[in-house]
Design goal:
Helix 2 (49-59) packs parallel to helix 3 (131-143). 25% of the residues lie in helices and 31% in strands. The protein has one domain (2-143): Maf protein, CATH 3.90.950. The chain contains three helices and six strands; from the N terminus they run αββαββββα.
């Protein structure tokens, strides 16, 4: 019985908690073919994040443009940060993507693996999923209602 109790207390610690995924979707106001200016973040070392973001924007009928310094006349500006961890290989462990209209936050994606043993993410094999598999559906949720067509 004691072994069962020990195993019951150790397994959750090894597996870690659940993944945090929060989306504040955009609700209307964006016309099709609207340009979304992406502020390139050169400190991000996650190699796929920028292309996942740009492809998601394109798939919703908007036009991504990537800038080192976003021009002042850009109505919609998207910023992002992403972090990687290592457990046999690198994987996306956290991302924060924010969409602004002028300087007002109108949408946000937040993704975070739990901290813990085994490089973060615990024993869950989903931590090794591609950035597209992790962020693509969240970007879809972010932009689904942007045109007001639902």
């Amino acid at each position: 019985m004691r072994r069962v109790l020990i195993a019951a207390s150790v397994i959750p610690a090894l597996a870690g908690c659940s993944v945090t995924q929060n989306v504040m979707p955009v609700s209307g106001g964006m016309e099709p073919a609207t340009v979304i200016c992406i502020e390139d973040n050169p400190s991000v070392t996650e190699p796929e994040i920028l292309s996942v973001i740009a492809n998601s924007i394109t798939s919703h009928g908007y036009r991504p443009k990537i800038y080192q310094d976003v021009p002042d006349d850009c109505a919609y500006r998207l910023t992002y940060v992403a972090y990687r961890k290592w457990d046999f290989t690198t994987f996306l462990s956290q991302a924060d993507i924010r969409l602004f209209e002028q300087n007002e936050l109108i949408g946000q994606v937040f993704y975070k693996l739990p901290n813990g043993l085994f490089g973060g993410g615990g024993l869950s094999a989903s931590k090794w999923a591609s950035t597209e598999e992790k962020i693509g559906p969240l970007m879809d949720e972010l932009l689904r209602g942007a045109s007001g067509k639902g």
